[in-house]
Amino acid sequence: MAFLDLFVVALIPVIKTLLITAVGFLLGVPRVNILGDAARHHLNNVVFYVFIPALVGGSLADTVTASSIVSLWFMPVNILFTFIIGSGLGWVLVKLTRTPQHLHGLVIGSCAAGNHGNLLLIIIPSLCEESNSPFGDKLACSTNGQGLVSLSMAIGAVYIWSYVYNIIQKYGNLSGKEVAKASTISIDCSGKTLDMFTENYTQSLLQSRRSSFEDCEAPDDEYDEVQEHNIVPEDVEDKKVTMFTKIKRLFNAFSDKINLKMWLTPVTIATIVGLLIGVISPIRKLMIGDNAALRVIDGSASILGEATVPAMTLIVGANLYKGMKKSSVGVWLMIGILAVRYVALPIVGVGIVKVAHHLGFVGSDSLYRFILLIQYSVPPAMAIGTITQLFEVGESECSVIMLWTYGVAAIALTLWSTFFMWLVS
């Protein structure tokens, strides 16, 4: 296929994304204020807790089987490479540009974490629908593409909330910022410390951070009185700690250490459920297919999932309005971030995927290889803005970075998509 034809195929989905983003941007302007802070708050709630899990879980259940999941093992490794290489290049960048200490975590995170889900959910199906697409049958391409991108989104979310989250937290602590308003709140309750993660991980929900302490019961006054007089109740006397209690305590301590609630986002839970349905044959036969007894559940999830892409794109556009404000992001720093995301990482990615394909780690599926390649050329993940707001570090600077990186993505992503399609076709 001619390079110009591939360029047109790659350009169409990007233009669609830009148009919807522009609508979101206009809706977020204060004069219009249809997608103001309150509206984004509620729409983000629905997208994060309903639309995305429905899309991810349904797509994986439809496309992933026990035999196919084995061939996808390289995807989490590939995404991990993007994070490690990107963070390394970001660390070099902050040293070369002498970036202020409190922005180190933001810059490194922006270079490390790419938008491996939301943006690809728009681009991949659009590419499949084009008549000159090199990925074969439109329906099969779209279905398989959504499944692969859903898996990519879930893996990326785990890496962001475990790896990038801790990087930004570390540099936020070093800069002397108060971390008491961050993602965990410690409360002493009945002799226990409860670590509670904020209810939402998306940007707009951060404006109303709150914790639910309903499980935290005050100590019983009568019990305190008994303790003061050193009287041991009969039902407590000679009470032995059971093995179950010990295991529960160890699990609670472990979950506090790794912030388990932070990892188990709705997207991650939907991924686990979708994989279980797809891999376990009896459940798959029960729920997936035209003759399945519970096919109505899969159909309902599919309808909900269709609302994900337009809703997310409108929110991205409305959030980018914040990037119009002034910040301390220097010109050379911004150029460096763009160079890392749209020059260095894609070049390295081509080498890694080519070597993996040569060694037999990646099969001959052109769509799968294309998604592995494009994971190196996407703009930063929007979740970075969420994390910066959690720690109140570099919020305005993050908006500027998002504005420029997503603006340049219109050109860079089109060119790289064209080259990647030529490479795998």
How would you describe this protein?
- The chain is mainly alpha-helical.
- Helix content is 67%, strand content 3%.
- The chain has 17 helices and two strands.
- A two-stranded antiparallel ribbon has the order 1-2.
- Helix 3 packs antiparallel against helix 4 (104-112) and helix 5 packs antiparallel against helix 6 (138-174).
- The N and C termini lie close together (8 Å).
Offer a concise description of the structure.
The chain has helices spanning 3-28, 37-63, 74-97, 104-112, 118-129, 138-174, 221-228, 243-258, 260-263, 266-279, 281-287, 295-305, 308-319, 331-358, 366-374, 383-391, 395-424; strands at residues 184-189, 192-197. The protein is mainly alpha-helical and 425 residues long. α1 (3-28) runs antiparallel to α17 and α6 (138-174) runs parallel beside α16 (383-391).
